[in-house]
Design a protein that fits this description.
By secondary structure, the chain is of the alpha+beta class. 35% of the residues lie in helices and 29% in strands. Strands 6, 7, 8, 9, 10, 11, 12 and 13 form an eight-stranded mixed beta sheet that branches. The protein has a three-stranded mixed beta sheet with strand order 1-3-2, covered by helices on one side. It has a two-stranded antiparallel ribbon with strand order 4-5. The chain is elongated, with a radius of gyration of 33 Å.
């Protein structure tokens, strides 16, 4: 064999060793990378399972009034120590719907929390000494069907004038849960009436806010009751500007006194709270 051939063999062997070394390094790198990601994944799973990150918590709760997140978790048959991985939305909703405090519910599962929407059965008004719930049923009637339903009877609730289950009042009472709680504390009376003006012929729900020694009734158009009660800024603005220069007065026979009066309606473009002009007619 010639020296030239020997050199070629040495070159080939050297190149082969380089390829083997390169391949070994790549394989080793892949093993290390896979091991790293496996350890990282396992660490994340352990952190998720053992830390508060993966435990039951409610991020957004809506439709409630008196119930808080802790109570809703309890009514769902859950504990804050439970893992979110064990949660089934349908099972939670069925459990919540079995509660006498909740009419209906909807649950959305997320990796680190739950969003829960409920329709709470809550005391919202009084009528002739009886507590009326947000579903329009009196407390005594409801408790005859749901013996486990317990609430304080010393709640400071507004009086519903001429309340009747046959009217639209249950819609009104349920929507009252949208009203800011600080504003709700100022509400002394509620009513339901037909309001007729040049621009409006509609069922309206009256909310009587106490302003010092005066009362200010805002008649909210039935079709916007949810938006109207939920708009804290608009209601506060109207209440703060309530005087004889801005709003007219009307006598409410059931109360035997004059109250300031406003209509809250939607004209197809915007929501408005304005004074009711003279000549408007009302009938129960």
């Amino acid at each position: 064999m010639s020296d030239f051939e020997d050199d070629n063999i040495l070159v080939d062997v050297s190149q082969f060793k380089e390829k083997v070394n390169k391949s070994t390094k790549i394989s080793l790198f892949k093993v290390i990378a896979r091991s790293f990601f496996s350890v990282l994944t396992l660490s994340f799973i352990l952190v998720y399972l053992l830390s508060p990150m993966g435990k039951v918590k409610i991020n957004q709760l809506s439709g409630n009034y008196y119930l808080d997140s802790d109570k809703v978790i309890e009514l769902a048959g859950l504990s804050k120590r439970d893992s979110l991985l064990k949660i089934r939305e349908d099972v939670i909703m069925n459990k919540l719907n079995e509660s006498s405090y909740i009419a209906s519910s909807n649950v959305s599962w997320h990796m680190t929390y739950l969003d829960v929407e409920i329709d709470e059965v809550a005391p919202m008004a009084k009528s002739n000494g009886e507590i009326i719930l947000s579903n329009g049923i009196s407390l005594d009637t409801y408790r005859s069907r749901h013996l486990d339903y317990e609430i304080s009877k010393n709640l400071d609730l507004p009086e519903f004038i001429n309340y009747s289950e046959a009217n639209y009042s249950s819609i009104f009472l349920n929507a009252l849960k949208r009203l800011d709680k600080n504003l709700f504390k100022k509400v002394k009376y509620l009513d339901e009436a037909q309001v007729i003006t040049k621009k409006l012929d509609s069922i309206c729900f009256g909310v009587y806010f106490e302003i010092g020694e005066d009362l200010f009734r805002i008649q909210i158009q039935k079709s916007i009751i949810l938006e109207g009660l939920g708009n804290k800024d608009a209601l506060e603005s109207a209440i703060n500007s309530c005087d004889e220069k801005t709003f007219s007065t009307v006598k409410v026979d059931e109360l035997g006194k004059e109250v300031y009066e406003a209509i809250y309606y939607y004209d197809g473009v915007s929501y408005k709270i304005v004074s009711l002009k003279e000549g408007s007619r009302y009938y129960e």
